[in-house]
Amino acid sequence: MQDVKLRARDAGASAPAPRPSALRRIGLALTPLLWLGPSLVLIAVVVLWPVAEMVRTSLLKISSSGVTLGDRGGGNYTDLFDEDDLVPVVLRTVGWVAGVVITTMVLSLAIGQLLNARFPGRRLVRWAVIVPWAASVLMTSLIWKWMLDNYSGVVNRVLLDLHLIDKPENWLAHPRGAMLWMMWVAVFVSLPFASFVILAGLQTIPEDVYEAARVDGAGPFRTYFGITLPLLRPAILIASIINVINVFNSFPIIWAMTGGGPGHATDTTTTFMYKLAFYDQNVGESAAMAVVNFLMILVMVLLYLRASRWREEVR
Amino acid sequence: MTARSAPPAAARRRTVRLRTVLLTATGWLVAVAFLLPYLQMGVTALKPEKELTKSPGTYLPGHWTWSNFTDVWSAAPVWTYLRVSLTVAAAATVVTLACALPAAYYTARNRFRGRNAFLLLVLVTQMFAPTALVIGIYREMVALDLTDTLVALILVNAAFNLPFCVWILHGYFSSIPKELEEAAFLDGAGRVGALTRVTLPISMPGVVTAVVYTFIAAWNEYIVALTVTASPDRKPLTVAIPSFVTDYQAHWQFLFAASLIAIVPVVILFVFIERYLIGGLTAGSVK
Asked: What residues of chain A, 159 to 198, have a C-beta less than 8 Å from chain B?
């Protein structure tokens, strides 16, 4: 075995061979392309091309039937910034992301802790928590829409039975209430992932750290805020940033529950962008909105990369 | 927390027991909270249509209409939608794996120029959901004359799930000692033989996780399918089921029967890969 290993190492060390011929050097330089090629092609065609196409479209004048009529310079952007609905939509998006992510993180800290504790049936509870993650977000949104139905929804029925309301409420008809309920649904579908990241973070904290705290006489409160929370920092950071990006991009919830309406009253930038292109047939302006969205995500991605310090992790 | 400073053993045991009871109760409550909407789906799917228009709504079906689950197949071409979803998800999974396997293997085994750039590109791709790019994707598919085709859906799903697969497989391959593989290589198995006979079997959990995750993500994809498909026989289930409830009809029972048909199998699959998921999604940054 020892022998094999040694010889194997020799055989494997073919890269710094004394003087490879030019042809062989080119061959060596190209081998990575052979292995990475399929991935690179796929990313180039399906991710990079649309990015470029989006930027290009945002500078074009396009008729409502989709025919390109020529260059437009920054015209689509000025049109976009002149939209009366833009500022409210952007502000709403910020509120939507902040509200959903903060609520999700607070709840997931508790749920992660719970899933990490020992009790009978923990496995089943973990499986239950995973369900909204595996289920289609669209279908989850539709069941919430049905439960909130003003006429025969179960939410009204429960609240009526508890005498919390005295007549059925049309929850999704008023922008304010609709927004709050949709944020709740977004929290609901975001919780599984966030909770599981927290759980994974908790499992990396060695038991003896707690042992030491106990010996030092730290109470549960101090142990949590002095040890658990600081050690969870990386997990919290990763969960929140991925959550921010997902919630920012979230489309099916709003699309299924209110369609962004009435008017643009419950739109976020994502649904706003979608309506510009496919309802108003204003593809150029929609692309401009998409580019603005994209830049915002890019900033978040950069934050993510800094947060995860990915270089250290690449083995 | 139980105090270590030796209180009477009986008292301590009581605290521990109380703690377990409380934890169990909270745990089960949380589980029910997460399942309630899906139970509501089941209950709604089992009501006859006339019970659905009662106000206020009823908790349980007055008449348990199990036939909804058989009638739904003829109420709409559900089988066609399922077939589209299945084709897209399966094909996307195959394409993703075909691209991710070699890339993950090569980056795990070799140091070369551009390796970090490649891994960074993959990580950045993971951050861009199709939603952000949907306008660009749509314009591209128009240019390629691929609108209203399954090929478009397959490509998009494959590409956006590639990062997760590359990362999770990269992690698995890196953790397998090179020597193991080289021994097989020297025994005359060849590079590819060593990969398929030694490395792949050990990496099976990673491969299964990648497969299941991609399949489910493609199965549930909505916005691109909504945008690029038009004809009924090219619509996956996610895009098709909302049409059970329109301004002219309200077949909520069929909508949720079809939803459950789509949800239950993938939840079961997801449960199998539960413990491997986090590592892949967070690209090892938690640890």
From this structure: 160, 168, 188, 191-193, 196-197
Alpha helices (runs of H) in A13-136, residue ranges in sequence order: 22-43, 49-57, 75-82, 86-116, 122-134
Per CATH, is B77-281 categorized as 1.10.3720.10? yes
The answer to whether B230 and B147 have CB atoms below 8 angstroms apart is yes
User: Strand pairing partners for B250?
Assistant: B245
Beta-ladder partners of A71: A60
Q: Per the CB < 8 Å rule, is A197 touching B255?
A: no
Could you tell me which residues are beta bridge partners of residue A61? A70
Query: Which two three-digit tokens encode residue B16?
Result: 């521990």
pLDDT tens per residue across span B120-134: 888 888 777 888 889
Q: What is the pTM of this model?
A: 0.85
CB pairs under 8 A between A and B: 322
**Is residue A165 within 8 Å of residue A159, measured between CB atoms?**
yes
Average of pLDDT values for B238-260?
A: 87
Instruction: Please provide residue B285's backbone torsions phi and psi, each rounded to the nearest 5 degrees.
Output: -80, -15
Strand (E) or helix (H) holding A68 = strand A68-71
Overall CATH class of domain A85-279: mainly alpha
Residue ranges per structural domain of chain B: 21-66, 77-281
Structure tokens at A18: 């004394």
Instruction: Give the mean model confidence (pLDDT) for residues B179-204.
Output: 78
Amino acid at A305: L
Percent of chain A as helix, strand, coil, to the nearest 5: 75, 0, 25
Dmax (CA) for chain A in angstroms is 88
Cis peptide before A88 (omega within 30 of 0): no
ipTM of this predicted complex? 0.85
Interchain proximity B159–A52, CB inside 8 Å = no
pLDDT for B27: 92
